[in-house]
Amino acid sequence: MAGPAIFLIGLFVVVPFLFAIGLSFTDQRLVTPNPTQFVGASNYNQLLGLNLLPLEPERDAAGQIVRDEAGAAKYPAVRSFTRKNPDYPQYDGMREWFSVGVGDTQWVVLARDVVFMTALVNTFIFVLVVAPLQGGLALGLALLINQKLRGINVFRAIYFMPVVVSIVVVSLLWRFIYDGNSGLLNNLLKSLTFGAFPSVEWLGQPETALGAIIVMSVWQAVGFHMVIWLSGLQTISPTLYEAASIEGASKWQVFRYVTWPGLRNTAVLVLVVITMQAFGLFSQIDVMTKGGPLDSTQTIVFQAVQRGYGKQDISGGSTISVILFVLVLSISLIQRWLTREKR
Amino acid sequence: MASVTLKGIKKSYGVTEVIKGVDLTIADGEFTVFVGPSGCGKSTLLRMIAGLEDISAGTLSIGEQVVNDLPPKDRRIAMVFQSYAIFPHMTVRENVAFGLTIAGAPKEEKDAKVAEAARILQMEHLLDRRPSQLSGGQRQRVAIGRAIVRKPAVFLFDEPLSNLDAALRVDMRMELSKLHADLKATMIYVTHDQVEAMTLADKIVVLNAGIVQQVGSPLELYHQPANLFVAGFIGSPKMNFIEVTAARSEDGRAIVSATDTGPISAPVRTSVSAGQKLTLGIRPHHLALTADGPIAGNVRLIERLGHETIISAALPSGYEIVAALAGDVGLTLGQPVRLAPETSELHLFDASGVAV
Ligand SMILES: Nc1ncnc2c1ncn2[C@@H]1O[C@H](COP(=O)(O)OP(=O)(O)OP(=O)(O)O)[C@@H](O)[C@H]1O
Ligand SMILES: [Mg+2]
Predict the structure, then answer these.
(1) What is the dotted CATH code of the domain comprising B4-225?
(2) Min CA distance, B108 vs chain A (Å)?
(3) CA dist., res. A223 & res. A160, Å (int)
């Protein structure tokens, strides 16, 4: 019975995945006249390579730090270390990611692939914001609609609706909402503040772009997780609530002592599912920002697709997907361990 | 401690009326049992007293206070549910102390009261376990412990023993009886098991289809059932009912007969007229084998219990009468027997089912 399913899963999931692992150790390109070669871990080095460069301020002959009029110390150019400097072969080809000043020394963090690092950080920010926000909101909605009221099913349907619509369509719609000139959001804020609110190009500025995508993503999938919470809520025996009401528990106490403990397994599920979905952030980026502006919305999967297909760098794309797999797997395991049943 | 008074209590779900006007007074410290067949509204009535269901009409008082509009926590009640309703993620100690935790009681008070309840219920050794590590009887003990800690004026039990096996049920029944004697609190207990009702109750309330059929002590119900329903419901095996016609009545007795039986003299409380159609009720335990009994039939079924023998005998009309005979009686299937009723223990009911 399970035969066909196992075959199909093997064909479309396991085999491609094993391919990806294999390819991540080669220099395979999509179309190339050259034979494929084994390159060891160099793809991983290329993506994840990091180094620390301590920059000492320039000093004059007397050993005093050279300062400009504003009193800021003058540092040598990072480029002088990373461009074919035979004294520092380890920095060769790297770029400055960010730097921190400690005392007079400027510690520069160099990355071999700054864009990928940005993508990693953006993805983590996305996950860290979306997981609690979406999970919490979905729980709130589930608690609200888990009541015996007339027409409550209408609300359930309304909240669930965005889930049914394709994420691509939703992203297109939200592009209009976020539009800088006559977008719905700008118009709304304007009319609420009687014109005082200046128009914002929500998706066009590095400061707001990721936030805008987070808000839209939370809205889109919150209904899905609401339904999961709802099913969890309905497994809690009504007599437990009755017992709590006889003991005189307040609404909050009922939640704390009856509802929340009863939702423990659901919470683990919701958390793991949201985390995995959030790590896969791609469609919204592809439709709304293409990773911009200034790489402020780069994500891991977007990078994988861009390299694998955009730049025809199959081995690079494969490497990113293997890294993503390891990340998601280890985070899921950590979550499982943290939320395990304590005896 | 408090009495409970129900005046004209009704409950409807939409158009269906489930409780059709109940008037009842439960005295302070009394152990009252609601019995009745499944779906007759016992739980609904109890839940209205608890405050878990709205009261559609009538007034409910606990003590001197009308509590119709009070939330459950202010009614000075505690309730024990059939499904235990103990919190699965809490230890026994936390479960028992739940009400105190909710009220923000200090730890010493909690410990003292939990220890007290655990002593009464002999479950000190269970306090640090979780419900999943307890047997059914132990879980129900925890639920009772949680009720005791509240020091309620009225304990409410909704079929607390029906998830337990037979032997444990007997044990717990005795413990509940003891608990009532110790605490001297008013207790209202719902069951559909008439043995529980008979053994536990000071007062039994028999319900059928949302109407109180009879209120009285267990023996009153057994010896003087007010109507056919109560007569048939209380007592095991069930009372036999034979359609009879009254011949005459004299000195508080009526002589009745049927196609199946010879003339039988039965006590009447009111009066019957000659020729009136009646139903004669005979408890199986009030039948004995005699050579010249007025009831003749053939043995169809024999159940030997050792201390008694239950037989079923087919009368000429085809009605099968059940008799519980003392001791081990040597009978064989198909054998003709004659049975004589104990004439002081007979019951007559008129066509509407009311005892006469
Ligand atoms: N929420 C409800 N809506 C409509 N009808 C209900 C509701 N709750 C109970 N009833 C009806 O009320 C009647 C009495 O129910 P109740 O639970 O009080 O019976 P019970 O005597 O406790 O029976 P059991 O011995 O099976 O527990 C039943 O006929 C039931 O169908
Ligand atoms: Mg019931």
Answers:
(1) 3.40.50.300
(2) 19
(3) 4
Distances (CA, A) of A303 to A168, A320, B144, B324: 18, 8, 62, 88
Nearest to B218 by CA among B206, B203, B233, B208: B203
Separation CA B201–CA B173 (nearest Å) = 11
Q: Which span out of A70-79, A145-154, A293-302, B305-314 was modeled with the highest average pLDDT?
A: B305-314
B87 with A240: Cβ contact below 8 A = yes
Of the listed ranges A123-132, B24-33, B256-265, the least confidently predicted one is B256-265
pLDDT at B280: 93
> Which pTM value belongs to this model?
0.81
Residue A342 has pLDDT above 70, yes or no: no
Residue B26 has pLDDT above 90, yes or no: yes
CATH architecture of B240-349: Beta Barrel (2.40)
Question: Is pLDDT at A201 greater than 90 in this prediction?
Answer: no
Cα separation, B18 vs B56, in Å, equals 10
Q: How many angstroms is it from B170 CA to the middle of ligand 1?
A: 26
Is residue A306 predicted with pLDDT exceeding 60?
yes
Q: Is A267 on the interface with B (CB under 8 A)?
A: no
Ligand 1 atom at minimum distance from B36 CA: 21
Which of B43, B158, B211 has the most ligand 1 atoms within 8 A of CB, as the residue to mutate? B43
Q: Which residue has the tokens 């007074």?
A: B25
Which has the closest alpha carbon to A111: A298, A335, A340?
A: A298
* Closest-lying ligand 1 atom to the alpha carbon of residue B45: 18
Residue ranges of the domains in chain B?
A: 4-225, 240-349
Of B256, B312, B263, B259, the closest CA to residue B279 belongs to B256
Element (H, E) at B304: strand B295-304
d(CA B307, CA B245): 35
Burial class of residue A331 in the structure, from the number of CB atoms within 10 Å of its CB (0-12 exposed, 13-18 middle, 19+ buried): middle
Provide the percentage of residues in chain B whose pLDDT is more than 70: 100
Q: Which domains does chain A have, with CATH numbers?
A: 51-111 (no CATH), 115-338 (1.10.3720.10)
Nearest CA to ligand 1 atom 19: B39
Q: Which of A37-46, B148-157, B210-219 has the lowest mean pLDDT?
A: A37-46
